[in-house]
Amino acid sequence: MPNFRCPCLAQVRSTGDAGANKFYMDTLLNFKATDRQSFVKFINLLRQDLIDNPESWENKKLDTFLDAVSSYATDIQGYYDNTKQNINADEPNWQTFADIFKGAKIYE
């Protein structure tokens, strides 16, 4: 299994409005999706982060973002294992989906 770490934790970049960027990054990193409604809120927050902080996104276009979603979904168990989280990515839940989208933001 590859040595894997979450790219969203590795790349917190400062932008013109450091306060706004910090808010979005803190909120995205700490967001817990527990049900469908909270996942919808997460997706809206992620979209707003793209609008407000496009420079912090590696995958701004839909085709590259979807490719990263696929790759990150494949690799996410390694992230969970390396960060000692007792999560089985094969048992999907709303937080796993949110983690995949967070990672796809900047996954290469």
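[next item in queue]
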Amino acid sequence: MGWFKKNISQENGPDLPKLLKQASAIRDKHWGKQITYSRKVFVPLTNMCRDTCSYCTFVKHPDKPEAKILTPDEVLTTARNGEKYGCKEILFSLGEKPELKYKKAKQDLAKLGQSTMIGYLKEMCDLVLKETSLLPHINAGTLSEEEIDELKPVSASMGMMLETITKRLGEKGGPHYACPDKTPIQRLRTLHRAGKKNVPFTTGLLIGIGETLEERIEALEEINSIHKQYGHIQEVIVQNFTRKSDIKMANHPEPSLEDMLLTLSIARIILSPDISLQAPPNLSSRHIKYIQAGINDWGGISPLTIDFINPERAWPDISALAKSCGDIGYELKERLTVYPKFINQPCTYLNEAINERVKSFSMDNKCSSYKMDGVN
């Protein structure tokens, strides 16, 4: 019997106050009175994608003038500006495998001397590592074992949202219809492959796109099961769907604050306590309430670049966020893109050069709030 059937009353529904209390206790015991964030710069390497999710405003069809692949100069300019703003992480986010579907994407890659987006992504990560002090975090979607092998030496961490575990949302009329990379089995395979390859990995749920509470819980249980097998899931995000005027789901209802609090608290209870629980602070004006549901992290916040996935939602001011956390007894602390338990194990989780760079941030006091447990 799963967690849902054992813990959710069929007559009365979930006991939210009880769940919030339990989740907060777990968070406080394992993570203390600190809420962390990563100071990042966001690089949308390409906004072309072979998937056409009904809730996405990031992806642009190749026929549109906005569709593009960033050049090396554009990547490096953004990275260097990020350094000036004190960023430590460079987030590479990109549409999935557009070159397999669109001639323009293939031609644009050829002009850049590459045949695949993954090959170009590796080149850009390598460029950033050679020319800046930043640590690459890669959000490239589903990956094969060979692609993970290609990217691991040039990244500190990787991520891919599981989003949902139900195949139902891929049926005609659903948000994942005709999206080959959003098939749950493909995304689960990527989580397993990242585990086998010892990649510090971020995943999570996108809630409010048509899934049920029971399906969310099943997804959390699956993530936790994979983590128990490999130990590589460093953080899980619970992200709320937000309406946008230019998407197919423009009139779809957004999840309520209570829905977010419920899902977050259940996530904290189900997931291993060593998995960081994260919720984006820019997708709700009442984000500070998430702390009572057991989160310990806000994710990446950029003082320079917008949230290209949710461009209408500005990042909170970091000083204001620190005050809001402090007002309810929690201290805002900066962290790096890779969590402490994966550091100082260069033969396992990190390329040796990246491991040394991670350690240097702490030794040089560039990220003084980062707990470097086990680092000599």
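[queue empty]
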